[in-house]
Every structure is written in structure tokens, then in C-alpha cells.
Write a structure and sequence with these properties.
Blueprint: H1 4-73
Length: 81
């Protein structure tokens, strides 16, 4: 009876490690499509951020231009001494 303990424990160990390897491989295989979707989502967020930044810069330049035009019409002196 005592001679069977190592055999049972080795079989149990192989079963546990085999099951763990199966689920690890399955998990990594399932992550493949998710990584592709994540990449698409990241690209969309980056594109939206670039567009938003460009709109912000254009609005800022328009406001600056409007300010200088308005100040000249009001007769303010904006020259650097």
C-alpha cells in the first residue's frame, strides 16, 4: 500500500499540471481576437484625441486672431516697445 503513494501522487500531479496547461493554452488562444479588438479600440481613441486636439488648436488660433482684430479696431496699441 505504501508503495502506491508515489504512483498516485505522480498521476495526480500530472493530471493537475495537464489541466493547468490546457486552460493556460486555451486562455492565451482566446486572448488573440481580444487583442486585435483592443488594438482597434486604441487606434480609434488615438484618432479621436488627435482630431480633438486639432480642433482645439484651430479654435485657439481663431480666438487669437479675433482678439488681435478686435483690439486693432478698438485702437489698442499692441506693439512691443
Amino acid at each position: 500500500m505504501i508503495d502506491l503513494i508515489p504512483v498516485v501522487l505522480v498521476i495526480f500531479k500530472l493530471f493537475v499540471l495537464g489541466t493547468g496547461m490546457f486552460f493556460a493554452i486555451k486562455w492565451h488562444y482566446d486572448q488573440g481576437p481580444k487583442a486585435h479588438e483592443k488594438k482597434k479600440e486604441k487606434r480609434a481613441v488615438l484618432s479621436a484625441a488627435v482630431k480633438l486636439s486639432a480642433v482645439f488648436v484651430l479654435l485657439l488660433l481663431g480666438l487669437l486672431f479675433f482678439t488681435f482684430v478686435l483690439s486693432r479696431r478698438l485702437g489698442l496699441d499692441l506693439s512691443i516697445p
